[in-house]
């Protein structure tokens, strides 16, 4: 008998329907074709054990399985469930309803006792199932809430293969998973562990982070050890605009493919904050590998990528950031595949100003030999620094401010100003689908929306000549000044907006670092 079951293969952050054709005839042989990898071929042993533990026997017939389309490589153990159900149906062992079987897409890894283990990519698989017109999707119970985010699709979570067999035999062994997506999503958006109100002092740095959040600008914090660089960076997501449903869906898809979505979780409600260690490889940063997976820059999509101690990262790792920072996408091309991952993130970096960490410190003397500060800074390429809009120095907080009881401004208050500035930008770029905030403005948009007045132009010219700024730095200053004007609710860029933006180019100052 010939039976078809349906599964899905994840490629990039999308899924492709896989048709599993199972033929059972007289004989005692087993063939699995259709470009399966080692993990898929090993499913034979897992299926035999799972069926035996649950009181069933693997059919003693000639089983031929084709996984179509045959030109797509099938990877991983998530095909165990559709393969096992297809084998039982083709051999007519337990009386499965084959007509009902074709209405559902199945995914799940089998343990030797028949229990189902979670799989990666449940959300893009559910989206594909709805696109293909399937009535429902059956996945391991741990993935059910993640997949149930997709509407107009019946999602069932199963704990054991016996439940799935009973379901296709007409028994109501599975419970429909429902998620009140919008209520849960909005309820979890305000739940932050860190808040700006916990930070004493550092008002100028808080202001720089507010400007960065309002315009989506990249920022680097330079300061001695213990000045609060990491602490401030970790609180940045609490002042970013909340996720829209579309952004949350796109970000959750990436984390789903990478297997980073927590069990029994639906949509991500807060913007991601990724902080890789400085020993990370370039492949782990951008993604790819033998079995292509999203890298850290894609996992930070619609959120923050924080690189602590920036000069300690390998030079090749830092250089691969340049293209995603501009294009906001990363393409992974290999001999046998090519995938495209979104990578629209805010880069937040921190670093010591020198090897000892005390260059420009107000109280402690720098112990580095002459030239070492410049040599330390040269670990970061000029083109990468030019792509960072805001560069600001941090000095340690004096004891009086640390011990003071005066309450600091909360993240919620800052966030409201950031949201108002982003709303202005949304209206400004409503006709352009590729631009969402000031940091993404093209040169044409700069000439249209970021034109300073005569006084501001004179101030900018003087700063360009005195600091020997590059043309790219000129664009960054205009973008940041446009954001500062938006925070002020000003229609045009004024001289004081440009002055503040120029002040955020600390590393470009003449004589900095010797």
What would your notes on this structure say?
The protein is elongated and about 85 Å long. The mean pLDDT is 89. It starts with a strand and ends in an 11-residue tail after the last helix. It has a five-stranded parallel beta sheet. The chain has a four-stranded mixed beta sheet with strand order 1-2-4-3. Strands 5-8-9 form a three-stranded parallel beta sheet, sandwiched between helices. A hairpin with a 2-residue loop joins strand 1 (2-11) and strand 2 (14-25). Helix 5 packs across helix 6 (141-147), helix 9 crosses helix 22 (471-488) and helix 19 packs across helix 22 (471-488). With 514 residues, it is of the alpha/beta class. The protein contains 23 helices and 18 strands. Helix content is 38%, strand content 17%.
- Major sheet description: 5 strands, parallel
- Distance between the terminal alpha carbons, to the nearest Å? 80 Å
Q: How big is the Rg?
A: 28 Å
Beta-strand content: 15-25%
State the secondary-structure class: alpha/beta
> Which stretches are poorly predicted, pLDDT < 50 over at least 5 residues?
none
Strand order of the largest sheet: 11-14-17-10-18
- In total, the number of strands is 18
Explain the layout of strands and helices.
Layout: E1 2-11, E2 14-25, E3 29-33, H1 38-41, H2 43-53, E4 62-68, H3 80-90, H4 98-101, E5 104-106, E6 109-110, E7 116-117, H5 122-131, E8 136-140, H6 141-147, E9 154-158, H7 161-168, H8 181-187, H9 203-215, E10 219-222, H10 229-234, H11 245-257, E11 273-274, H12 282-286, E12 287-288, E13 293-294, H13 296-299, E14 304-307, H14 315-319, H15 322-327, E15 329-333, E16 338-342, E17 346-351, H16 372-377, H17 382-386, E18 390-393, H18 399-402, H19 411-428, H20 443-449, H21 454-467, H22 471-488, H23 495-503
Parallel strand pairs: 3-4, 5-8, 8-9, 10-17, 10-18, 11-14, 14-17
Antiparallel strand pairs: 1-2, 2-4, 6-7, 12-13, 15-16
């Amino acid at each position: 008998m010939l039976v078809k079951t349906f599964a899905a293969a994840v490629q990039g952050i999308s899924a492709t329907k896989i048709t599993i054709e199972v033929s059972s005839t007289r004989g005692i042989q087993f063939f699995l074709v259709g470009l399966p990898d080692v993990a898929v071929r090993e499913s034979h042993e897992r299926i035999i054990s799972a069926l035996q533990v649950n009181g069933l026997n693997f059919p003693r017939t000639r089983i031929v399985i084709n996984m179509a389309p045959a030109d797509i490589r099938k990877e991983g153990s998530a095909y165990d469930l559709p393969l096992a159900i297809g084998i039982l149906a083709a051999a007519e062992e337990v009386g499965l309803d084959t007509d009902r079987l074709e209405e559902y897409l199945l995914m799940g890894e089998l343990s030797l006792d028949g229990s189902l283990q979670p799989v990666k990519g449940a959300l893009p698989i559910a989206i594909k199932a709805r696109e293909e017109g399937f009535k429902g999707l059956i996945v391991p119970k741990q993935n059910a809430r993640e997949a149930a985010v997709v509407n107009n699709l019946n999602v069932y979570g199963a704990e054991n293969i016996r439940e799935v067999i009973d379901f296709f035999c007409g028994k109501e062994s599975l419970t429909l998973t429902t998620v009140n997506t919008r209520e849960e999503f909005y309820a979890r958006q305000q739940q932050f562990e860190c808040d700006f109100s916990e930070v004493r002092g550092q008002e100028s740095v808080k202001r720089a982070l507010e400007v960065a959040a309002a315009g989506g600008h990249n920022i680097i914090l330079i300061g001695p050890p213990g000045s609060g660089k990491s602490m401030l960076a970790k609180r940045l997501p609490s002042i970013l605009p909340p996720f829209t449903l579309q952004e949350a869906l796109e970000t959750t898809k990436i984390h789903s493919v990478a297997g980073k979505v927590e069990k029994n979780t639906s949509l991500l409600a807060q913007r991601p904050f990724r902080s890789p260690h400085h020993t990370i490889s370039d492949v782990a940063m951008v993604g790819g590998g033998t079995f292509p997976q999203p890298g850290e820059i894609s996992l930070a999509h619609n959120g923050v990528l924080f690189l602590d101690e920036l000069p300690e990262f390998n030079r090749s790792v830092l250089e691969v950031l340049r293209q995603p920072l501009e294009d906001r996408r990363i393409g992974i091309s290999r001999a046998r595949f090519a995938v495209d991952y979104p990578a629209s993130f805010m880069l937040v970096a921190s670093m010591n100003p020198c090897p000892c960490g005390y260059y420009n410190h107000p109280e402690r003397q720098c112990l580095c030999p002459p030239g070492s500060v410049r040599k330390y800074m040269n670990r970061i390429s000029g083109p990468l620094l030019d792509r960072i809009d805001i560069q600001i120095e941090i000095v340690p907080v004096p004891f009086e401010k640390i011990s003071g009881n005066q309450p600091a401004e909360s993240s919620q208050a800052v966030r409201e100003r950031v949201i108002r500035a982003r709303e202005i930008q949304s209206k400004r770029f409503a006709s352009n689908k590729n631009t969402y905030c000031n940091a993404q403005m093209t040169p044409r948009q700069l000439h249209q929306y970021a034109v300073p007045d005569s006084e501001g132009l004179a101030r900018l010219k003087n700063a360009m000549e005195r600091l020997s700024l590059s043309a790219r730095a000129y664009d960054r200053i205009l973008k940041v000044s446009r954001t500062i004007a938006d925070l002020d609710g000003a229609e045009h860029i004024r001289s004081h907006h440009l002055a503040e933006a120029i002040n955020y180019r600390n590393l470009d100052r003449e004589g900095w670092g010797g």
